[in-house]
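Problem 12. The chain below contains 394 residues. Write out its predicted structure in token notation.
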Amino acid sequence: MKRRDFLKKTGIITAGTILVPSFLRANMFSNKLLIGKKRLVVIQLSGGNDGLNTMVPFGMDEYYKNRSAIGLAQEELLKVGDLFGFHPKLKGLHDLHQKGMLAIINSVGYPNPNRSHFRSMDIWHTASDSNEYLTTGWLGRYLDANCNNAYEGIELGGQLSLAMKGMETSGIAMTNPKAFYDTIHSDFFNELGDPVTENGELNYLYKVFNDTKNSAKYIFDQYSLKPNPTIYAPGQLGQQLKQIATLIKSDIQTPVFYTQLGGFDTHINQKFAQDRLFTQLNGGVTSFIEDLEKDDLLKDTTIMIFSEFGRRLEQNASRGTDHGAANVMFIIDKDLNSTAINQYNQLDLQDLENGDPKFKVDFRSVYQEVLTSTLDVDANKVLGKKFDGLNLWG
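Solution.
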């Protein structure tokens, strides 16, 4: 087969159910748990979630002055102290916070914020400065430095995020393990064989393909080890989290899982959109937590929830909000420092920058904590420099 034809055919893979990973070492597959202290599960809220209507500052007059149409009434909220309350659709997250298992990190951002979805997401994915352009993601660099196989970073979704792309070792994206396996083991790909040619580039492509095929089998075999009858809340996120839970129950050698929920670009009729999206988020996360708890696996898991930017304080004319800057993040873990679950829930609505709340916590400080305490690695080697410590873990 000509290289052009091979690339054309494999384009079906890269644009669809899976992404061909960088070099895999299939002979290193093992049933023994080799990952660090914990597994990290990242949930990305794509589109710029409105943090001010997520963790609502009901105790600040400026909130209602600027949001007469979309401000959430105090009596609706799931309160945390005298100033803040969770959105009413986030009861499961509120319950986790009450149990000391969820840290609220508010006013998270970076200097000189960018309001473009694409650029700001690139900044969050690569952990770069706003004027710096990197081609590798922060989790991709973690994989480069600490892992050998693409299956050590799995993203549930049709496309691999920049966050998961390394220089040598990238993660692998799939819609689900069965679709991944079925696609790579289709008749067409089975006929490719393992030719030896004088074309080094083509030989490498075949090697990548064969290693991908082995990875597909490993993931599917692990996924099939323990059937998971747990019923999850409806919605795509819930089903993706169920697949992650099923893989975790199999003892797969994967320290990083990634998924996302889209639709948060709420310029129009925000309340309806957030109600719907938060119902999915809350239901998916709650089902996931309960599922892992049944097998005592939550103690080995950290969940990070983030979005690429927040929204402006003032509502717009369409009962929505426009692109902002600083935002709220959530970290879920059973071993959090008890003082940290509220320590960084801070917000100043009187000191704005171009209509946006100013950032108080650099998002890379959160990454640094996760790399150090969850993935048990040297964060400096991944992020390139040291950021303020948050002491999220006791």
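Discussion. The CA atoms of residues 44 and 260 lie 4 Å apart. Students who got a different answer should revisit the alignment rule from Section 12.3.
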